[in-house]
Structures are given as C-alpha cells and as structure tokens.
C-alpha cells in the first residue's frame, strides 16, 4: 500500500512537504497579490524555518518526502516528462516561434533542472535566442522580467494540491489561476513515480473545484468539506459522489465558509487536535453550519440541513460533543491569531500538534487543554497565509485502531 490516511489525528507516518526555493524569489511587490502572497518573503530565512519544520517532524519519527525531489525523479520517466513539458508549452501566450524556442530550452535540461523550471518558472531573460534559435515577435515585445512559464510559489502549501482519503489520493482542482498548474505536478508524481505505483486517483484536476485545505477527515468514514472561496458546492458534491462510490466514507459535512481571504479554506478556521477536539476560531464556532451529505438509494449524494457544525460533527462521529479550543482569549487576539494561522495546526497524533510559535495565546490554550504543541517559527513561511497544516500533505497515518 503506498499511502493511507483515515483521520486528521492518527499518528503521522509519511508526509509530503515542499521546501521553498527559487519560486519564492520570483515574488515582487508587483506580482505578490496575484501570486497569493501578502508580503515578499526572505527566501533564505523561509528555507531555514521550513528545514526546522521538517526536522521537528523527523524528530517525531515522521518520514518527510519532498515534492521537488519526487518531481525530479518523476521527470526521469519519459512519459511524465513529455506530459509536463507539453503542458507548459500549451498556452496561446507564447505563439509558435517562442513556443519552439522554449521547447528547445526545456529539451536541453536534465530532470533536476527541468523540475526547477517547472516549479520556479522561466523568465524572458532566461531564454536566450541565438542563431537558428529565434524568439520571434512575442519574445521581442516581452519585458525581460515577464514570465514565459509562471512560477508556483504556493507549492509550499502541499495540503491543497492533493489529499489522501483512505488508500486513494485526490489530485484536486485548484480554484485560483496562480495555483492551477500545481496539480499537473502532483498528478504526474502520483501517476508516474515508482513510489506511488498502483495508487488509484480519487479525483482529478479537470473536475469541479476542490482544494485539500477544505477537506478534514474528522474520523474514519466521516469528512467535513469547506465550501467557500476555493471549494465550490459542485466540487463538494462531486467529491462526495466519488468518495461514496469508492466506499471511502459514509457521511460528509458540507460546511459553508465566508468567501474571504482570511477564511480561504476550512482549515484556516478549524483543525483537529484530538479524536474529539478542534482548535477553532471563536468568531465562527457558533455560527458555522453543516449540510449532512449521505448517499441516496442510487448512490447520488443527498443533503439535509443545515444544522450547527459542531453538533452535526459530534453526532456523525458518535461522540457527545466536539471539544473546542479557542484561538485566543479576546476577539482582537482571536482575529490576529486566526489571520496568522493559529487554527492551522498539523496533528502528529492525538493531543500532539505542530503550530506557529507566534500564536502565543492559542498555543497556551492548547497546552491548557492537554495538547502538546511543537512550536515552529513561521515569520517568512506565513507570508503566503498558511500554517503547518497547509504546508503538509499526510500520505500515511497509522490507523487509530491499530495503535492500541
Ligand atoms: N490550506 C490552506 O489554507 N492553504 C494556504 C494556501 C495559501 C496560498 N497563498 C493561497 O492563497 O492559496
């Protein structure tokens, strides 16, 4: 079995991360908004912070896989290389002459260099036309800093571009144009990397929008799916249909969330830290609603509700109540710490999570509630608006009933 994840808090065995690299160096004050960053990160410090995050995971026995390395290995497979190369060339923006020129440039690259270009993009000034290698009109009219291939700085947030549900992986359908190409990379890795041979894809990028940050595995067979800026109602329905057809879950809570940047995914307001506990933004705890989605007689998803999210989740999970640990004590602190991903914890096991150290109040609340917090710094990493959960895609967790 290549991967298996049955809940948010089962002991984490293998995780997919992306060590940020030259794609972050592409961010400027002119493009950071469209590339979904709120500031210009200091790349070297972001890498140090990320290395510390990875070390903290390894220190707890977690196997860390890196997307960049898997991609380079995947590009050694001719079919994957052909597919990913064709994908970046397939844009009307290039025109025929420049397309041929860029194709020749990419053909000269070995797998690690090509992986780097697919992640960091390619700027006009990095494509050198020459005798017999013209750039053409398009090349001449471009600014030297324009991108011939757009960079993918949000690869850092591996949570969103794929999500494992039981032993299948959903390669998601990302909503924002700046992120769409990410899933061509994750899709190629899962299809062609030998490590994932035999893995069945539960979802593919051409389907309705679903992002991994919206998918919470509340317990085996029970999912919560945020519906908002990134995951559409149609995406939630399609995922439900596929999950039911594959027998991976029997209940899905579809949870509408405000279509705002601060709440772009469900995991920005709520993550699980124990089998019966969440850390949650208090400003939404009482207002969040859920539609209960189950399979009708013909297998098609049927929705009932809405009802209060916390009560619906507890009922679906067969527990009296879902304990709620607040982000901060007062509304202003809560708002600040929610913005800085205080709710976005990564559970390594029940009552053990990774969180940004800056969210002092929230982390103290977690500790008071008996949750051990491994605090990491994220001053640079957080500039893309994502915390430890966003930066990690669990591939394998030990099922809770196997842990004794
Ligand atoms: N699950 C998450 O909340 N991921 C964070 C994604 C941040 C990224 N800059 C984005 O806007 O998509």
TrEMBL record:
Pfam families associated with the record: ADI
Q: Which UniProt keyword terms apply here?
A: Arginine metabolism, Cytoplasm, Hydrolase
Q: In which pathway does it act?
A: Amino-acid degradation; L-arginine degradation via ADI pathway; carbamoyl phosphate from L-arginine: step 1/2
Catalysis performed (reactions): L-arginine + H2O = L-citrulline + NH4(+)
Top EC class for this record:
hydrolase
Could you state one GO biological process linked to this protein? L-arginine deiminase pathway
Q: Which family does it belong to?
A: Belongs to the arginine deiminase family.
| Protein name, as recorded | Arginine deiminase
Gene responsible for this protein: arcA
